[in-house]
Amino acid sequence: MVNELFMSIQGESSHAGIPCIFIRLTGCNLRCTYCDTTYAYDKGVEMSLQTIEEKIEAFHCKNICITGGEPLLQNNIKELIRVLLHLKYKVFVETNGSVNISLLPKNVIRVMDIKCPDSHMHGEMDWDNIERLRPNDDVKFVISTKDDYEWAKQITITYNLTSKSNVLFGVVYGTLEPRILAEFILRDKLDVRFQLQLHKYIWPNKTRGV
User: Fold this and answer.
1) What element of type H or E holds 83?
2) Taking residues 9-32, what's their average pLDDT?
3) Kind and range of the H or E element at 54?
4) What are the boundaries of each domain within the chain?
5) Given its phi and psi angles, is residue 204 left (phi above 0), alpha (psi -120 to 50 degrees) or beta?
6) Residues whose CB is less than 8 angstroms from the CB of residue 164 and which lie 6 or more positions away in sequence, other chains included
7) pLDDT tier at 207 (50, 70, 90 boundaries)?
8) Each residue's pLDDT tens digit, 111-142
9) Rounded to an integer, what distance in angstroms lies between the CA atom of residue 37 and that of residue 24?
10) Are 141 and 165 in contact (CB under 8 A)?
11) How far apart are CA 113 and CA 167, in angstroms?
């Protein structure tokens, strides 16, 4: 099921800033405390591959991000991705880290969360995913507090994440001041990328379609 389909600026990941088509799929197995897409938990419409293809062609953009919810819960996602890759789209998949990411084809760029303790979902992670990472994948920590930061730092060091993929630290919008997180990273000389959710600063009063 598709919750929404739109074009915007990619607001997160190491590819932030590029124009991108977003296909938001319905359903999520987690309930993070800071979730900003609760409307995607169970609302959506059935959409054929042909209809999706027709809608995305109208945008004239070759970057596509499949997101959710948790898109890996959808039975037909591999077929959708196969069609998109055949049509020469650059495909990104945003996943919450609780589902085996090896389900995705090798030509897909995977943007995987590792949930911090303040999300209350860190116990749901599939930690084997760390060994499934590739150099062009992104690992994303969404940080609410100093305790979250210290936890994310320790996970990054323990698993040597920066040798496996791109590692990004970002703040929960409106909860932790970005300056504080930036200062933590500089203080500890972490080899990670600081990120903001660009779409929330460009369109601060919009929750959908951005």
Assistant:
1) helix 77-86
2) 96
3) helix 49-57
4) 2-202
5) alpha
6) 130, 133, 134, 135, 137, 139
7) confident
8) 999 999 999 999 999 999 999 999 999 999 99
9) 10
10) no
11) 10
Task: State residue 66's pLDDT score.
Answer: 98
Parallel, antiparallel or unpaired: strands 63-67 and 19-25: parallel
Assess whether pLDDT exceeds 90 at residue 161. Answer: yes
Half-sphere exposure (CA, 13 Å, Cβ side) for 15?
A: 21
17 contacts 9 by C-beta, under 8 angstroms: yes
Number of H helices, E strands in the chain: 5, 8
CATH class of the domain whose range is 2-202:
alpha beta
β-strand 193-195 against 166-171: which pairing, if any? parallel
pLDDT at position 200: 87
What is residue 171's three-state secondary structure?
strand
